[in-house]
Amino acid sequence: MKIAMIGTGYVGLVTGACLAEFGHQVTCMDKSEEKIEFLQAGGIPIYEPGLAQLVGKNIGEGRLSFQTDMRQAVQGAQAVFIAVGTPSSRRGDGYADLTYIYAAVRELAHCISDYVVVVDKSTVPVGTARQVARIIREENPVADFDVVSNPEFLREGAAINDFMRPDRVVIGTESEKALAVMKEVYDPLYLISTPIVATNPATAELIKYSANAFLAVKISFINEIAGICEAVGADVVDLAKAVGLDGRIGSKFLHPGPGYGGSCFPKDTLALLRIAQENGVAARLVEAGVEVNSAQKARMVKKIIDAMGGSVAGKTIAALGLTFKPETDDLRESPALTILPPLVERGGIVKAHDPKGMDEAAKILPNLHYMNSAYEACKEADAVVLLTEWNQYRALDLARIKAGMKTPVFIDLRNVYDPTRMREAGFAYTGVGR
Ligand code: UDX
């Protein structure tokens, strides 16, 4: 099948490459000439494990190409995916900014000749599929099309696997004809018995927000319990293991930490709150989840200061990990962005290291010192703060770290290390909730 992908950001690029791998003929289109030239030359603008190989392979086999011209990209396509960005609006009021989607759709409307399925892949508020259809009809009254909502559930760092082996595929449409096209798009997934949930567009749109809000609330729940554990001397890691073994609860997303970040949970929870508010419905659990997450980040600042004897002024802090999670170069809403600046404001000297995020971090946090390795960052430090659980921080040479430090204070915001063993190794160790 011939497919066009509008937008070559994270979602567009991963989806385009994976659909090409399914055997479809995919043209990815982006307004940015610079980006398209970079992609055509074999460059990958984001770090996502396996993506460069997948893109290269499918370009090589002639199934994936890049284009700045909408008309050419869409020509002959049976499905056009909209995967442009939907950032939180600049007003900071929780609204998703749909400017890019609507602009893309306006242009697309004039390129439609034969029947086409327009697929909303970006995470969009309930009712967007209807708006998209209205805009296309307005711009091109004779266009033959259907709009489908087909939300993505891709985790950064594991996006290709999430696309190739999804828990489910959600297809929101009122049209049987569009449903048939979408089933053909995802045909390879039938072979591995992937559940397909076919529903109406509004439900599909809300499924995405609900799934992300649930996971965000689940993280906030365990972070709140971690605080209680600290107060009563319980161990949240053992607790989460036991609680998670209840099949109704499940062990995933029960890891306490410095709070969730990334491009989805913070944005999608706020957007869901906005949707509820606009419709006069309460969403108190999600609201609390968001508040707990902000409080968790603030609580980490206090935890660090307390572990360092009540003041960080003039002291050196080694910060390991800046991205919002491992295996990505993404810093959006990363806990590091809210936890580290207050330490600098209080006179702390932060020596930071991250395997993939330092270039971006240097732009946002110019007051940190960026080091070439974790060991360099820890040299002469008064404390180490582990913020992101990159694999290379999971098996640090602790004796080497300790030998180089001024004082062996280790603050492990991801509970990577065992408290008893760390104390035996001579560290003043602080975890989260244990
Ligand atoms: C998420 C969803 O998982 C994905 O399905 C959706 O479509 C996009 O948003 P992503 O943001 O890439 O994916 O990362 P995810 O692995 O879900 O982690 C999000 C944040 O939660 C990270 O900051 C992570 O560190 C944090 N987290 C996750 C925890 O603090 N504890 C956990 O137990 C799990």
Please name the defining characteristics of this protein.
Rossmann fold, 6-stranded parallel beta sheet, single chain, alpha/beta, binds uridine-5'-diphosphate-xylopyranose, 2 domains
What is this entry, summarized?
The chain is an alpha/beta fold.
CATH class of the largest domain: Alpha Beta
Count of DSSP strands: 14
| Individual helix count | 18
Poorly predicted runs: none
CATH topology-level name of the largest domain:
Rossmann fold
What is the CATH architecture assignment of the largest domain?
3-Layer(aba) Sandwich
The shape, in one word, is elongated
Strand content: 5-15%
How many discrete domains? Answer: 2
How many strands, what sense, and barrel or not for the largest sheet? 6 strands, parallel
Give the class from helix and strand content and strand pairing.
alpha/beta
Radius of gyration: 23 Å
Strands of the largest sheet, in order across it? 3-2-1-4-5-6
Provide an overview of this structure:
Helix content is 45%, strand content 14%. It is an alpha/beta fold and 434 residues long. The protein folds into two domains: 2-198, NAD(P)-binding Rossmann-like Domain (Rossmann fold), CATH 3.40.50; 215-430, Rossmann fold. The protein has a six-stranded parallel beta sheet with strand order 3-2-1-4-5-6, with helices on both faces. The protein is elongated and about 70 Å long. The model has no long low-confidence stretch (mean pLDDT 96). The protein binds uridine-5'-diphosphate-xylopyranose (UDX). The site of uridine-5'-diphosphate-xylopyranose (UDX) has 19 residues, from helix 10. Uridine-5'-diphosphate-xylopyranose binds at residues 152-156, 212, 215, 219, 253-255, 257, 260-262, 264-265, 324-325.
